[in-house]
Amino acid sequence: MSPEIAFWLYNGPNMLLSILLYMLIGRYILSLFFRSQSELVIWRAFCQITDPVLHAVQAITPRLVPPGLVMIFAVFWLLILRVVWLVIAALYGFLPQVGAQ
Question: What ranges in the chain are assigned the alpha helix state H?
């Protein structure tokens, strides 16, 4: 496998997961300053990007958990997914090698 393909096989999904992770953290920080029904563009953009992740996590999270904690669970699950992706990439050999040409 060429190094370029190995690079994108690992880093493409990893970048997507990290973008979602940092967007969730950013949404949490913005929620300290904006109301949940705010019409500001930045708030709506963060909500549109992170709502699918939050809905997926809310579907597997027990109803006992308050809605405010679902975002923390989502961050936790995204961190776990990134580690699992690293292990899968290492096991199947498409983890980019240092110094590979």
Answer: 3-31, 41-60, 67-92
Phi-psi region of 83 (alpha: psi -120 to 50; beta: other; left: phi over 0): alpha
SS3 47: helix
Closest CA to 70 of 49, 88, 56: 56
Single pTM value for the model = 0.83
Nearest to 74 by CA among 60, 57, 52, 51: 57
Q: Domain residues of the chain, as ranges? A: 3-92
Q: What is the mean pLDDT of each run of 10 residues along the chain (101 residues)?
A: 77 94 93 86 92 93 86 94 93 75 56
DSSP state of 39: -
DSSP structural state of residue 97: P
